[in-house]
Sequence to fold (442 residues):
Amino acid sequence: MLGVEVNRIVRIALVVVTLGIIAGLGFLWLNRSRTQHLTLAAGSRDGESFILGEALKTVVQRHYPAIEVTVLETGGTAENLRMLASGQAQLATAQADVMPGPAARILAVLYDDTFQLLVPADSTIRSFADLRGKRIGLAQRGGQFESFLRVAEHFGLHAAEFQFVGSSDAAADEAFRNGQADAIFRVRALGNPSIQRLVQRGDVRFLAIEHAAAMKIKYPAFETATIPEGSYRGNPPVPARDLPTVAVHRTLLAHQAVDQDAIRAITEVLIERRQEVMQEIPAEMAEVRLLLAQVRRPEAQRELGPPLHPGALSFYDKDRPSFLLAHADYVGLMLTVALMAGSWIWELKQWMLRQQKNTADQYSNRAVALMNSAQGTASMADLDEIWRELQAILTRAVHDLDEDKLSGESFNSFRCILQIALDVTRERRAMVSGGVGVAVTA
Fold:
């Protein structure tokens, strides 16, 4: 019975392993052959995120035709994150100071967004605190609005103490140019085209936003930053001096359910093919091209930021030692145990074969002994007894074959010897009975 159980377990294990390998290969083939349709929620069409997204889309589809990316114009970070959480978008750009939902995973830091506050050159406003009661060119939605309120809170101000003008960035820009807004606030990369146009078309002045390090205590995503003198114009310089301010990372996020291979491919293009991505951005947008120099792996999430997407992590860790090298000791132990177990199974199989052969030898030896006895007797009663015992041996051997106590090869060898013994006994019975034999075969 032990042999039957061992063979049955081995057969079942082989079938399970084979089916598992076939299923795994089939799944991988289907997964790699199907087209991935991904939507990237990227903010306003003239924003840096949208422009980078379009360039990224082109290069991804050039190298990975099975990944189709659609870049969607949106109202900004807040809308992007809502679409990501609801499944309307699988990818999204977002300010790092706006918390995403639990399903969001980060791929990369795209660049740093800088808090930029502008007022007319002749304005009496000298600090952020002076904005109380003023008209602010800023839509009351999105990540920019949330960032403004966080800064205001730090200075003891609240939303009700401001008048917000403009339903969009474009409308707010127009209101500021027309004197309908006393200040305009933006969270954008340095050199942003819309801010550049405001500087070129009229006299404006940048205001410092102090206390970035202090605000970071409550808002860990805030970083200390500087708007360098002359960032937007050299003569006369705008701003007129280096100004302290706040910056936050602009990040690329993905839903946790997005295929890991697709995310790895997008991350690879973003990091290793940035020169190609840069070439897809129009030459007149040099300031956006240069943002690609800032693309990088996110730092370890010490705060409440989203974790890395597994697909991005597999790309970033591609140069790390393989699992086998990193866990060589454990792998060696496992191989040793596996070899010992294999050796034990092999020895058990050989022992079973030896037992089967010994059983067949016992049957064969007994058949030979009975054959010799038949040749040496003239008693019909003795011959009948020998015949019955040979038949009994055959019955036991067939039963042992069914129970795996005899191998097929051993049984066939024994059966040849048994047939000879039966033939000799039948002939001897015929001789003793005067030529009347019983025709029986094994």
